[in-house]
Amino acid sequence: MSKFTVFDIETGPLPDDEIKNIAPPFDPESVKTGNMGIEKIAEKLESVRRNYFSGIKKKAALHAEYGRVLAIGWESEGETVIQIADEKTMLKLFWDASDESHHAQGKWVGFNVFHFDLPFLIRRSIINGVTVPRGLQPKNNRYYPDFWVDLMQCWQAGDYRETISLDRFAKALGHGGKNGSGSAFAETLEKDEPAAIAYLENDLLLTRQVATACFNVF
């Protein structure tokens, strides 16, 4: 594949009040208190309640109803675009850019994008009222068009039980690995935006390195 664009997204949790508004209400009846006194029961209920919502928030970046897109990046022939803006704006820009490539018969390549990135982007687009171009939508709500290429499938080589991380795949090829953790992206973005951008740019570099190796074989 001579010309292609690599892309990646970074996600994070919604604000606490939005998560609590969406999440199923905490059920005190689910907590076993035994023969505890009134004060101990109240303390335990409050502790379990906090853990309940903190558990949802901890995994919120992986679920589109509790999480949001914080950044989107893509790179083609040395030209890198990093979007860190209002989520609705980023979604529109992403779909417009990829749709333009689609009409130009290009390909967009990512890692594990059929399982995470694309479903997350589509779900957040539904929530934000952003139109996904018809030519980029999964066919029959199941199979993505050939325009999208998922490098996880390259590694699986037909064995869909086998998975690998982008970090390990790149290292196995002799390249460097990640320069941080995606789970910390939201915190990094808040405290040090240049470091967050550098993290996303490095992910794009690793994706291109893995893509190049895969396309040399397939």
Keywords for this entry:
218 residues; alpha/beta; five-stranded mixed β-sheet
Structure report:
- The chain has 218 residues and is an alpha/beta fold.
- The protein folds into 2 domains: 5-14 and 72-217, 2-Layer Sandwich (Nucleotidyltransferase, domain 5), CATH 3.30.420; 16-61.
- Helices cover 49% and strands 14% of the residues.
- It has a 5-stranded mixed beta sheet, sandwiched between helices.
- α4 links the parallel β4 (108-110) and β5.
- α6 crosses α8 (193-217) and α7 (185-191) packs across α8 (193-217).
- It is elongated, with a radius of gyration of 20 Å.
- The model has no long low-confidence stretch (mean pLDDT 92).
Cα end-to-end separation? 9 Å
| Uncertain ranges | none
Estimated structural class:
alpha/beta
Quote the CATH topology of the largest domain: Nucleotidyltransferase, domain 5
Q: What is the overall silhouette?
A: elongated
Instruction: Provide the number of structural domains.
Output: 2
Count of alpha/pi helices: 8
* Strand/helix succession: EHHEEHEHEHHHH
How many beta-strand runs? 5
Determine the fraction of residues in helical runs and give it as a percent range: 40-55%
